[in-house]
Structure prediction request, 111 residues.
Amino acid sequence: SDSKRSQMQLLESQIVEAEDPRQGIAMVVELLNLYKQEGIHLRSLFRQACCYAFQFAEMLGSSEDVRYWAGLAAKYSRQCRGRDHEESLYLDAVSRQSLVRGSPNSKKDSA
Prediction:
């Protein structure tokens, strides 16, 4: 629907400007759900949204969330750019790491 497409455009611009990583991840989740509801299958959009969530998770210092979002971003990056693309390889490696930079005491995001 037109209203959902407008909502997607608004979310996309808000995600880019987001300063609160928890809010940013919540907006990414909402955006991904809207893509699915609207039957949008363009994997590059999913890749970009997951990359934003990955960056927000890094800001939070949550290893579990970083691995989760890096894994999703890697999946879509492989579909868009190929398995051997630098971004795909990097995200795949991050998704397999046991530790990431950041505070080990950061609270897990509930999104």
